[in-house]
Sequence to fold (278 residues):
Amino acid sequence: MLGGFYAAMTVGISIAFGILDIVNIAHPAFIILGAYVAYLANTSFGVDPILASIIALPVFYWLGALLYQIYHLSFEKRGQDAQDSLRGLAFFFGILFITEVMLVLEFGVDYRYVQAAYIEQKWQIGVVDLPLRMLVPCVMSLVMLAVLELFLTRTFMGRAIMAVAQDQFALRLMAADPVRIKRVAFAISIATASLAGAFLIIIQPVEPSMGRDYIGLVFAICVLGGLGSLAGTLIAAVLLGVAESFTATFYGPSWAPAVSFGLLLLTLAFRPAGLMGR
Fold:
């Protein structure tokens, strides 16, 4: 169940970094922003956090489209070199800290949580307890990944997104605008982050600086699964989720990150392209 949630957090990075080659280090900040949107809708109007995030998807989509347009005009349009890549990374670091500061100024540093009928409930199957606060986000994460996989493999726009990182000239010959395709793809990656934020605040209370704790994790899962592979992202997320859970249970939570990144290093040593990389 933890791995399913990790997959939801990472799918946006798999699109932005794995397909578009955009190192969006601010991705976890949009996850936290999505969590606070779900929190506001839940506390102000009593709306279910997941439903609130679905309603807010168009807003995050257009926010992602605007952010990519700024990135494109500032860095991609003039050509990519080492300095532009470094400036692009600094750009997303700035977005990360600006978002965090805005949330701190608005909500403070206290932990915030939501209310829903299923959060305190659990299903018991024999000796196994399935807390719904973990199961519901996991199931919704799998649904989101399935919808994205169908979109990327069965629609013209989805196939264009997969092709834009391979050969932009050939894509133009198919009457597609690479800039528009990348803008749509990046907007989708930010929209998925908002959904992951709703899942996060269901699982645990959140505070503005939590996003930094997930930066290494989401990039590790993305690389471990194989850049641009949604199936690989899910497999890697489940592997790391299981590894962290077992390690935290038997050896203490402080060892969990070490085991996760140890698995990443082993995978890169024997399969540098990742589990499902090409």
In short: The chain has one domain: 2-210.
